[in-house]
Design a protein that fits this description.
With about 270 residues, this protein is of the alpha/beta class. It folds into 2 domains: about 100 residues; about 150 residues, Vaccinia Virus protein VP39 (Rossmann fold, 3-Layer(aba) Sandwich). About 45% of the residues lie in helices and about 20% in strands. The protein has a 7-stranded mixed β-sheet with strand order 3-2-1-4-5-7-6, with helices on both faces. α2 packs across α3 and α3 runs antiparallel to α4. The termini are far apart.
Length: about 270
Amino acid sequence: MDLISNNVKEIWKISSQEGINYFAASVYNWFIKECINYNQYIEFTDVQIDVFKNLYKALIKDLNKIPTEVVNIHIEKIVTNHRIKLLTILQEIFSGQSEFTQKKICSEYSYKLQKQVLRLKINSLLEPILDIGCGENAFLVKECINNKKEIFGIDQYIVQNLDNIFCKNWLEYNYEKKKWGSIISHMAFTNHFKYHVSHQTNYVKQYMEKYIEILSSLKIGGSFYYSPSMPEIEQNVDKEKYKIQNYENIVNNRIKIGSVKIIKLK
């Protein structure tokens, strides 16, 4: 309510679909951040993402039309109706999935940390590059752009002013055959993969299939950089087709987080 009340005058000025999309994306990102900050393993399908996007566009359209008299009463009514619709959707999605209603906090990591953990050398990365789980701020993507690298990103966030970021579910994205020179995913894809393996959820098979698809999408000589490592999966990778390099990272002198570079040989 406070956020909308403080910005309602700007919302009233909207006169185009582009303007509605801009404000809707900002509030949608706030919603996604709330979800992920509560439980980083929450994943929405592409269909669900579109439902949420449209819900927030409808919210901005309704706010854009309210009369200037008794503003707060109108805002409260619109926000209440929006909240009821939103909660109904969330209840349908997470019905019977208690593992996603438990709090599991995460962070968005700086380019400097990602570079250190994954042993990245920006100028040596083969193109095109794909960052899976690039984050709302897309730190790695922006650094690569600054270095004149062709790079794309995938995340549940809408990253505005960057046309090369896809607001998609990484399990539904088509990585294509032999397309990517470098694929990077720091504390994202395999972090979720490990979670689903350890909890034996219904997503394990999908993650395994997508992991194989990601490897197949590399060009010859291309690399998949990721953390955390998954030794139980990596031991089954075809050693004739792929070379695996493992690294160990010590955090606070006690936590070990493995990182991996898989190079496609043929």
